[in-house]
Amino acid sequence: MTSKKDVYDQLNRPLRDLRISVTDRCNFRCTYCMPAELFGPDYPFLKKDELLSFEEIERLTKIFVQSLGVKKIRITGGEPLMRSNLPDLLSKISSIDGIEDIAMTTNGSLLPKYAKTLKEAGLHRVSISLDSLNDDVFGRINGKGVSVQTVLDGIDAAHEAGLLVKINMVVKRGMNEDEIIPMAKFFREKGHILRFIEFMDVGNTNKWRFDDVYPKKQIIQDIHEVMPLEPIDPNYTGEVASRYRYKNSEVEIGVISSVSDAFCSTCNRARISAKGTLYTCLFASNGHDLRTPIRANDTDEQLSSLLETIWFHRTDQYSVERSDVTIKKHKIEMSHIGG
Ligand code: SAM
Ligand code: SF4
Ligand code: SF4
């Protein structure tokens, strides 16, 4: 293995955070991510041998951590818990020296089954997605009529298993902005950090429009009128959420404002899709195929040098440059890259 070094891109950003998508499949069909009319029974999902194997993911992760300065790993998808034997991957990853944080983003539906095993395998944290507390609204958003209680059971299972829990709520104008206050009250009571995510133009299938974005400023104003908030400092450089605390309370919320308030200048994240393509931006059109060199038996040194070169040449700052022109370009879908 080559020795550890910090790699900086063309905007002087180091590489710290690696997000790994383990499947492009999902048991939900969220309208803003995998609209049911496009991701139907005939959708060409990846076949098993097209996915990176756990051994290939482990090998790449080791190189990212031990040679390129990555400290945080996030497992995502599609729905990561749809990948068979996922705890085995967590066991492999958690035994790699040098990782400070291992997290997963999930829709929560399978957590009652897996939370305990995931915790035992070394997972630290979960971000669980829930966009409404109203069954009709949530059932429509997730495209499968899944109940709110299903996700709440997942949240409880994760908490009881000892995993740190955050809740992710995508806010889209006309879809669920009325749910901001009920969600804020509910999770303030429960003591879980709720993070609001502006609806983003990831991929080309979710019919994104600027007008559908319910911006950070509005979200904060809505909550502040009911439950006064005060801003708090980021935990670390590159944290994506702007943090706020309810006054006279320890409970906090966050807002991820990729559209209204870009945070590209500190973006230290790389993403690997389920088939092993590396993307240096969530809104990228093209990635770098890592599966071919891995399966061609390239050495760790060769792979490390390839990754270093890719990061060195990185200039991405899509959210700073977003315009009527950029939103029309071909972009990788969220279910492939994983958020
Ligand atoms: N299936 C898992 C889940 O839903 O948590 C993990 C993958 S999902 C693609 C990751 C995160 O991206 C989720 O919190 C989801 O709500 C969010 N997301 C998906 N499409 C989005 C969009 N167009 N804009 C903003 N967030 C989005
Ligand atoms: Fe599935 Fe997550 Fe996308 Fe919803 S947001 S369709 S749960 S991958
Ligand atoms: Fe990072 Fe791209 Fe998002 Fe900017 S738009 S914060 S570069 S992923």
UniProtKB/TrEMBL annotation:
Keyword entries, A-Z: 4Fe-4S, GTP-binding, Iron, Iron-sulfur, Lyase, Metal-binding, Molybdenum cofactor biosynthesis, Nucleotide-binding, S-adenosyl-L-methionine
Residues at which [4Fe-4S] cluster 1 binds: 26, 30, 33
Binding site for [4Fe-4S] cluster 2: 264, 267, 281
Needed co-factor(s): [4Fe-4S] cluster
One Pfam family linked to the record: Mob_synth_C
MF-aspect GO terms: GTP 3',8'-cyclase activity
Residues of the Radical SAM core domain: 10-230
CDD domains the record matches: Radical_SAM, Twitch_MoaA
Xref: PROSITE patterns: MOAA_NIFB_PQQE, RADICAL_SAM
Residues that, per the record, bind S-adenosyl-L-methionine: 32, 78, 129, 200
Cited SMART domains: Elp3 (SM00729)
Annotated binding of GTP, by residue: 19, 74, 105, 166, 269-271
NCBIfam families: moaA (TIGR02666), PRK00164.2-1 (NF001199)
Functional summary from the UniProt entry: Catalyzes the cyclization of GTP to (8S)-3',8-cyclo-7,8-dihydroguanosine 5'-triphosphate.
Family designation: Belongs to the radical SAM superfamily. MoaA family.
Protein name (Swiss-Prot/TrEMBL): GTP 3',8-cyclase
Organism for this UniProt entry: Bacillus salitolerans
